[in-house]
Amino acid sequence: MKTALISDLHANRQAFATVLDHARRQGAGHFALLGDYVGYGSDPGWVVDQVRALRAEGATVVAGNHDLGVSQGPRAGMNEDARAAIEWTRSRLSEDQLRFLASLPMSEEDEDCLYVHANAFDPSGFAYVQGRLEAMRSLHATECRYTFCGHMHEPMLYHLSGTGKAGDFKPQPGMPIPLLPNRQWLVIPGACGQPRDGNPAAAYAIFDHDSEELTFQRVPYDVEAAAAALRAAPGLPPALAERLATRLVAGR
After folding, report:
1. CB half-sphere exposure, 130, CA atoms < 13 A
2. Which of 28, 48, 127, 233 shows the smallest number of beta carbons within 10 Å?
């Protein structure tokens, strides 16, 4: 079985639709959605409905900080644009959609896999895994062999050996990586809807449970259409569209 690991959709319809199509063509039979379905983007209703449909079909779905911000109110530490986007998003979602976001679990376990938005040591605190120190803290907090999380918006892979030796790896897209059985692994697939590594292509990853191989993916999508939809949405900060456009330029 292949699991598509998708995080940080951020109401980006163009990116999410492209990634779903790409993942299915790669043979993904299961979807693990790692949070932040809303916030920043212009199509929260469409994205939430797609997430709900996938969950009804058996997808693993966990909550992100923007999802809780929209359903429960902005969290401390969110910047001005994020707060503005949360208030805008709340006015665009139905009560049923808001209840769905509020109902999502902070984490899910399935055999030797842990799915969580930010980290394993404090899922509801949403601390970032910014480097090896936080990654090791997260791996020490679970007995699961694989931890899959988002929140950082940049693809990254960390590992911890049975002797306590830690390592990290910045992956190249499209290259299968064998996840050796004598290690724990922490996988950050990157952001589907808002990459922040200078490459505008949507990021996600596919984990092959049978071969125990992980493949990071980058999928070009219509960034200009996503930015135009943001500009056309009254009430969303213009900087959000400019940020997507900036990513486009930076990735060339």
Report:
1. 3
2. 127
- Residue 162 in 3-state DSSP? coil
pTM higher than 0.90, yes or no?
yes
- Integer Cα distance of 43 and 190 in angstroms: 20
Count of domains forming the chain: 1
Asked if 104 and 63 touch (Cβ cutoff 8 Å), the reply is yes
The residue behind tokens 């997260």 is 138
Q: Which domain holds residue 97?
A: 2-106+173-181+190-250
- How far is residue 95's CA from residue 146's CA, in Å, rounded to a whole number? 35
Q: What is the CATH number of the domain that holds 81?
A: 3.60.21.10
Q: Is residue 93 part of a domain?
A: yes
pLDDT in tens, 59-81: 999 999 999 999 998 776 778 88
Q: Phi and psi at residue 92, in whole multiples of 5°? A: -100, -10
CA–CA gap between residue 167 and residue 12 (Å, rounded)? 33
pLDDT in tens, 196-243: 888 999 999 999 999 999 999 999 999 999 999 999 999 898 888 878
* 3 state SS of 167: strand
Neighbours of 209 (CB within 10 A): 16
Q: How far apart are CA 238 and CA 230, in angstroms?
A: 8
Nearest to 162 by CA among 137, 145, 148: 145
- Residue 198: inside a domain, yes or no? yes
Name the DSSP letter for residue 27. T
